TrEMBL record:
One of its GO terms (molecular function) is dioxygenase activity. This is Glyoxalase/bleomycin resistance protein/dioxygenase superfamily protein. Transmembrane segments: none annotated. The keyword Oxidoreductase applies. It comes from Halolamina pelagica.
Amino acid sequence: MPWTAFVPESAAIRGFHSVTLWLADPDPTQELLETMGLDRVGTEQTEDDTPGDERTRFAADGPVGAYVDVVPTVQGGRNGHGTVHHVAFQTPTDADQDAMRKAVRSRGLNPTSQVDRHWFRSVYFREHAGVLFELATNGPGYDSDEPLAELGDRLVLPGRFGERREEIEANLAEVTIPGSGRADADD
């Protein structure tokens, strides 16, 4: 099955196409990633890794992200500033998502029912070490309710939040969108 690991846009811009999971017991998660259809493509020792602990790389198909790296660690993780809330995997269709949900359940995990997120539909579960994974459908897509060329020009709220627009907008920080004449930061 084709799966794609979502990678933060800033990481993709810098040329990285991977998500790294530091886990005390990586084996169950590695087996889960293989169950999810990712391919184990190798191991390596990198400069930032603990000596003797090699990272194992899993390849994901698709245009959004390419790799999930799993690194053994003795320290437990914690949520806070600078951490990732969850790792999302794109599923092409509802049928693909349902098949993956069943595969995840067969590994002893407890995925949620499908949740409608307006622009896509998601299933959530915590993998064996507690990392939150999301299986998100590819559609209907962010351009389902506004033209692709206008994405990001204004705040678009899904149906149930429309009646709370004033309240939501009042609590948002002001955002300045660079004009088309502005040079890129790297120039």
